[in-house]
Every structure is written in structure tokens, then in C-alpha cells.
Amino acid sequence: MPLRQKHLLGIEELTLDEIELILNTSRSFKEISTRPIKKVPTLRGKSLINLFYEPSTRTRSSFEIAAKRLGADSINVDVSQSSVTKGESLIDTGKNLESMSPDIIAVRHSSAGAPHLLSQYCETACIVNAGDGMHEHPTQALLDALTILDHKKKIEGLKVAIVGDIAHSRVARSNVLLLGKMGANVWVCGPPTLIPMEFEIYGVKVTYHMKEALEGADVIMMLRTQRERQSEVFFPSVKEYFALYGLDTKKMGWARRSAIVMHPGPINRGVEIAPELAEAGYSVIFEQVANGVAVRMAVLYLLLGASEEPGL
Predict the structure, then answer these.
(1) Cα–Cα nearest to 207, from 224, 229, 237, 185
(2) Domains 16-137+289-303 and 138-285 alike in fold
(3) CATH superfamily of 16-137+289-303
(4) Torsion over CA of 237, 240, 241 and 242, rounded to 10 degrees?
């Protein structure tokens, strides 16, 4: 069963059935990564182009690994060494790449809506949003949901606290949309300067007090303070930010004893999370990275028609 849409541009466009389809398919691909030979011929003859206009370690690498584990070819475009530096537009870059007959183009861009724009001009290639500005990051939200389900078995009814730089976070937006569709009780928390009013329309609970957000929380999702997107000062100092909104052992005591700690990365230890907590027993941060490969395998497979058995 393939996805209903040709492209994966955001969580907002996905139905609950499609979300569950991706998550269920991801589980079938997790086993492949445990094999001595981590490769199947499911997408042999297919190709993926990673078109990343922003730096990335986890997302770009996992898309590349996902494609290769499914037998597809993967090409990374170094934008800093491409015709973009000569003034080539996103549309022209996309159309030039599409002329080489790739099956999927994964796009990360600093401008919100860039993958949506590209999808209007690319006639044959599937476009996957790998993060667009401060808008969405759908595969991150999907891998986060898979990680939560691995530990909690369900999402409906869970209290999920998303803490940090909400205003500049595409991860927060995609997670709010996805977790809301799956029935979670979502709280967002951070300095008033870093929580836009629009988040109230998503049906989440907004608080500026970390204790209120963390009390009884089943899942704590910490976010990086995205200095590269901040054009002005939103908090007095890093020290004060950590004191009020950084996760440490004392603040962990406000959550449920069974709570898990998540972070989309990259981690700024000592800013949004105490160094020792990143690898504590309740941290699932590196499990998120592992699940990212399985989720992106599922997305590539489903977008390309799901015409063969995934476990070949």
C-alpha cells in the first residue's frame, strides 16, 4: 500500500492512517539494520538525491543510509560547490537535477515552503521535506513517534512536554501536529519570547513554567536554542536560560519516574540539557537517531509505490 500523496511535504497533509502506515512499515525495516549484511534489493535501480542547503549530520546521513540499505543509489549535492553559488535558483536547480531522472529528491532549505515550491515544478521526482525553515520536519516527528511507541506502546493519552525554542523549531511544529493527531496531551514550554501565540490554535497547552510542563510528563522533548535563526536576543544569558529551562536531575524529578527524555539534536550540553542526562538511562536520544534510518527507509519505500515486499 503506497502513500496517498506523491510527495511528503509535512505532517499536516498526512492522515492518521498514513502516519500509522509509515510507523508500521518502519518497524519492519528496523530488523534489516541488525543483520550482518544490512542491505536488501527492494529499491534496486531507484535513486535519491539529497539537496541540502543547510548543514546536517543526522538527517542527511540517515536518508543516504536508508536509500543504500534498500538497494537504491544515493547522491549528495554539496550546495556550497554547486551552481547555487553562481546564482542558480532553487527551481532551476531542482529541474536540472530532475533531468537526470532521480526518483526522490530530499530537500532541506532555510526558507519555509521551499520543498512545496519545488514539488510544483518537478513533474516526475518525489519531493521529501527534510526540514524547511521554521515550518516543518516531518520525518523527525515520525521517528520521534516511533521512539515513543517503542517505550510507551501507545501515544494516546500521554503527556508530552516540548521545551525550549518553540518559535524557531520546525521539529516542534511537526511534533505538535503529529502527536495531536495521535491523541497525546501536548504541552509546550519556554520563555515567553520563544513561544509564538499561534501554538494555541493547535490545541496544545502553553506554559512558561517548566515545573508545570514537566509535572506528570511521560515524555520530555528538549529543543535546541537555534541561535542561527534568531535575529535578536530572546533571553538574557545562557546561564539564566539553563537555570529556568534547561533539563537537569532536579527538574527530571517533576516528571513521571518512567519518563523518557528526547532531543532532535544537535545537543548543546549545558544549555538545554545537563551533560550527564544526555546518556542517562531514561535518555532515548541515540535511539531516535537509529529509528531515523528505519523511518526514512519506510518513507522512500512507500513513496516509490510499495510494490515489493519490504523484507526481501
Answers:
(1) 185
(2) yes
(3) Aspartate/ornithine carbamoyltransferase (3.40.50.1370)
(4) 120
Q: What is the pTM of this model?
A: 0.94
Q: What is the Cα–Cα distance from 61 to 158, expressed in whole angstroms?
A: 31
Which CATH fold would you assign to the domain 138-285?
Rossmann fold (3.40.50)
Pure H helices in the chain? 16-30, 58-69, 90-98, 114-121, 138-152, 170-181, 210-214, 238-245, 249-252, 285-303
Give the tens place of pLDDT for each residue, 111-170: 999 999 999 999 999 999 999 999 999 999 999 999 999 999 999 999 999 999 999 999
Nearest to 226 by CA among 283, 287, 271: 271
Q: How far apart are CA 305 and CA 1, in angstroms?
A: 7
Say if CB 96 and CB 118 are below 8 A apart.
no
DSSP 283: B
Domain spans of the chain, in order of start:
16-137+289-303, 138-285
Cα 227–229–230 angle (5° rounding)? 65
Supply 242's cell numbers. Answer: 539553563
